[in-house]
Amino acid sequence: xxxxxxxxxxxxxxxxxxxxxxxxxxxxxxxxxxxxxxxxxxxxxxxxxxxxxxxxxxxxxxxxxxxxxxxxxxxxxxxxxxxxxxxxxxxxxxxxxxxxxxxxxxxxxxxxxxxxxxxxxxxxxxxxxxxxxxxxxxxxxxxxxxxxxxxxxxxxxxxxxxxxxxxxxxxxxxxxxxxxxxxxxxxxxxxxxxxxxxxxxxxxxxxxxxxxxxxxxxxxxxxxxxxxxxxxxxxxxxxxxxxxxxxxxxxxxxxxxxxxxxxxxxxxxxxxxxxxxxxxxxxxxxxxxxxxxxxxxxxxxxxxxxxxxxxxxxxxxxxxxxxxxxxxxxxxxxxxxxxxxxxxxxxxxxxxxxxxxxxxxxxxxxxxxxxxxxxxxxxxxxxxxxxxxxxxxxxxxxxxxxxxxxxxxxxxxxxxxxxxxxxxxxxxxxxxxxxxxxxxxxxxxxxxx
Length: 449
What we know:
Layout: H1 6-9, H2 11-17, H3 32-41, E1 43-47, H4 51-62, E2 67-72, H5 96-107, E3 112-117, H6 125-129, E4 133-137, H7 141-153, E5 171-177, E6 180-186, H8 209-214, H9 219-234, H10 245-261, H11 269-276, H12 284-303, E7 312-316, E8 322-326, E9 341-345, H13 351-360, E10 367-373, E11 376-379, H14 384-390, H15 398-401, E12 407-418, E13 421-433, E14 436-437, E15 440-441
Parallel strand pairs: 1-2, 1-4, 2-3, 4-5, 9-13
Antiparallel strand pairs: 5-6, 6-7, 7-8, 10-11, 10-12, 12-13, 14-15
Helix pairs in contact: 4-12, 9-10, 9-11, 10-11
């Protein structure tokens, strides 16, 4: 498909970027260079290449973004084809990220999309730090939480606990469930992050094992019986892989037998996938609407052509059409995006001495603390086996245990007195080491323990 002239192609975009207005962002500077900068320098990562991710890639490419990456670990299945419009029957079995990137580049001239067929956990922090905006098209709470933690890890605060603007990694998050959906803007340190509003997501449905084993009443009960009970009985020691078609087919067949035994109808292969992988029913039109909202917010963040959403949009197309924007408030003590308690230490202070200081610090007063750094247990009070494993760290300098970084965040779990009662609490600490210049110990200023 031949591209129209550059002027005609970006006519609608230029209406937003070439003239001022009353709703623009505080740093908006209209002019022809703004579109050029958007296309040349802004890098966006799309996380997920499913129903919402396909729409996001298309919308971002058509909105002037030319430097895009997409990451997804899944391969295309037949059941994806009814709503993930970038895929065709001949693509079944191929990586979603690779096919989605190829299809958008075929239709939108000038855009460059780099696919990553892997788990989001396989990429290091340097990979994520390279992007100006992260757009989420996920259907998993765990995946959202992981990306949120990554984005918040770049956040740094000044001495007055104000977030440093250059360390804020903007995220645009979308989600759909049938005829309902949401779009939100997350500016870590300014707006609520994912963990600040984790209560917005309902708990996942869990079935009692006794119901699955003794008195199944629904098709989902039969499927979960085959998945959680029967698989282990037949395949002792073999891990079930939800992305393996043969494993899924086996669960489907066993669920059918279970359903016939109890006179239950409704077990289908599609439902089996949905129950086992916790897939929420998706509708193409909902994905398109939510993606449009997310792409527009990404454009606002990148250019300042309008104030961003503040900060959570909900959509309901079940009966007519209803949208609403709610401004949620950031949790001051959020363990992901909150500033945490600032502690300045000498480079030679041991982990044991550091733990003693936690009990003396007026903002903490923690006793019997367990210390975690980037998911690694530095010292655990319990259980006994972990205490024994981490005990040798007590005599090590904390600076060494943290990889000799000049400053970073650690988490501490301990007990404190609240209204005369001992309560367990988790605290986020910003540890800064004295006498560190560009990651090197300055021996003139570094003190001892």
